[in-house]
Amino acid sequence: MSVRLEASSLSIGYGERLVVDSLDLSVIGGTVTAVIGPNGCGKSTLLKALGRLLPARSGAVLLDGKQIDRMATRDVARVLGMLPQAPSAPEGLTVADLVARGRHPHQAWYRQWSSDDAAAVDAALEMTGISDLADRTVDELSGGQRQRAWISMALAQGTDLLLLDEPTTYLDLAHQIDVLDLVQELHASMGRTIVMVLHDLNLAARYADHIVAMRGGRIVAQGTPGEVLTERMLLDVFGLDARVVEDPVAGTPLVVPVGSRHRLP
Amino acid sequence: MTTARTALRVGAVSFRLRRRPMTVVAVALVLLAAVLVVGIMVGDFPLTAVQVVDTLLGGGTRRDQFVVTELRLPRALTGLLVGGALGLSGAIFQAIVRNPLASPDILGVTWGAGAGAVSVITFSGSLGVVTGTAASIGVPLAGLAGGLVAGLLVYALAWRQGIEGFRMVLVGIGITAVAGNFTHYLLTVGDVQDAGRAMVWIAGSLNGRGWEHVVPVALALVVLVPVALVGGHVLGALQFDDQTSRGLGIRVNAARSLLIVVAIVLASVATAAAGPIAFVALATPQIALRLAGTAQPPLFGSVVVGGVLVMLSDLVARTIYRTELPVGVVTAVLGAPYLMYLLVRSRREARV
């Protein structure tokens, strides 16, 4: 078990405001890490910095021990794939072409398309179960299909590290489970290392090995779902009064919010 | 399904074969050759197609030789090359800015070139500051400089830690207005005769274009088309939001800057040779895109389609009326409804 991705006293800010405040984090190879926290706690910002989409104000991000902002952009893209929260594609782009763009870091101007690329694209489409949509355009897909197309692109990139920023946003529950099952499969069968930002705590508990809870730009708790998802943490981090019971299916913690309607006087 | 993404491999070099875009380029090249021959046939001394081809291959009478190689071929080639340069410039702009409105016409590059050229025309005439050879070389050079200044100004003013398409279009409209009004000012203060000459240049004309106009555009294309095609590999992955593009391993700002400079130079050189021929750079990439069925304007396809468009428009301009019209009048008549269509049509973008 080696550390693949590491943040060391990392601070990131927009203008005057510090969004991530001297944070330390180690992502172990072959694990699924979920970052949780209330809106505006800096979790998306942290993920972007881990994917070198944002520069660090101080501190550093280390990818396999090397400082990420000193590496060539292309070299990073061969190891680390990133799916932003709301990616946009041009109108009229087909699914096959979208996924093919994921091969970019492996191509050069004189080698724009090889049989390896074709094989990787076919495999990525196969894995997300959208091979039959290959010739449709991205704009005519449903939300769930579109998200799978974007994930296919990240898969075609062939990186063993994947950063997913809220991969389940805008999806109904069945599609959320679909996407997370896919993440699980990538992790289980191919040993990929995954860091994702998730809003749904129960799904995070089910699908992640390691949970990182953030508030105000700092990590307030991290560990296994059982260690992190406690009633005390929910109150501290989210200001949420909730009971934590055992998930009858998975045995992981299940968060049941109380809410004012059911609060005892 | 895999057949649609077959790779063509020669040693370490391998490319993707796409049937439809390649068919479009092939058909357009045939059309280009046909329009070239017809363009040389038509005129005060009509020639047959056989005579034209024979003369181009070195045969024909001395009169045919003169008419073809000295008068009509340079004009046709200027049209072809200018169209190709404008088409490529527009394709790069539209692909980078991800907006079909982005083109050197809208972004102020061609009007900047116009302002540069008209200053030389008005000051060279009655005022006699610039005369003779200086004037004939000065017009295209000033056009080139004007286009570069306007283009780089738009680029610099739209820069906020990176280039954002919509801001660039807005800044471009502003620069277009400034350059346009400066040009009109020059026309008012200038001599009537100079203003007349300037107006023809502003409309965009291929009249009297000789080899001295062919050479600079040809040189620019020889250097910049390969640069664009090499850089064009990056264009595909620049199609997304900045974060996705960066995630694919692209140095977004560097790649965008290089390609935009290439596009500015192409448009300025073309405008310097033939004046700001309206709408070609705007419409060509979209025509090529629709024909090829691709999501982004095909670069090489836009070169060829642009060439066909300008030569065809020039043919119409020369034959439709008793006296010859500037080619820019024809392209403007064709292009104006298209611009309105673009403005009316709401733009959708695929988002998750």
UniProtKB/TrEMBL annotation, chain A:
Which GO terms are recorded in the biological process aspect for this UniProt protein?
Answer: iron ion transport
Keyword line:
ATP-binding, Cell membrane, Ion transport, Iron, Iron transport, Membrane, Nucleotide-binding, Transport
Which CDD domains does the entry link to? ABC_Iron-Siderophores_B12_Hemin
Query: Cellular component terms, GO, for this chain's entry?
Result: plasma membrane
| Subcellular locations according to the entry | Cell membrane
Q: Which membrane topology describes this protein? A: Peripheral membrane protein
Pfam families per the UniProt record, alphabetical: ABC_tran
Alphabetized GO MF terms: ATP binding; ATP hydrolysis activity
Asked if the record carries the keyword Transport, the reply is yes
Domain (ABC transporter): residue spans on this chain: 3-241
The answer to whether keyword Secreted applies is no
Note the InterPro entries from the entry: AAA+_ATPase, ABC_transporter-like_ATP-bd, ABC_transporter-like_CS, P-loop_NTPase, Siderophore_ABC-ATPase
Name of the protein in its database record: Iron complex transport system ATP-binding protein
Automatic annotation (TrEMBL), chain B:
Give the record's membrane topology: Multi-pass membrane protein
Which subcellular locations apply to this protein? Cell membrane
Q: Does the keyword Plastid apply?
A: no
Tell me, in one coarse class, where this protein mainly resides. Answer: membrane
Q: Where do transmembrane segments lie in this chain?
A: 21-42, 76-97, 109-131, 137-157, 169-187, 214-238, 258-283, 295-313, 325-344
List GO molecular-function terms, semicolon-separated. transmembrane transporter activity
Q: Which UniProt keywords apply?
A: Cell membrane, Membrane, Transmembrane, Transmembrane helix, Transport
- One GO CC annotation, please? plasma membrane
Family, as annotated = Belongs to the binding-protein-dependent transport system permease family. FecCD subfamily.
UniProt protein name: Iron complex transport system permease protein
Q: Which organism is it from?
A: Lentzea jiangxiensis
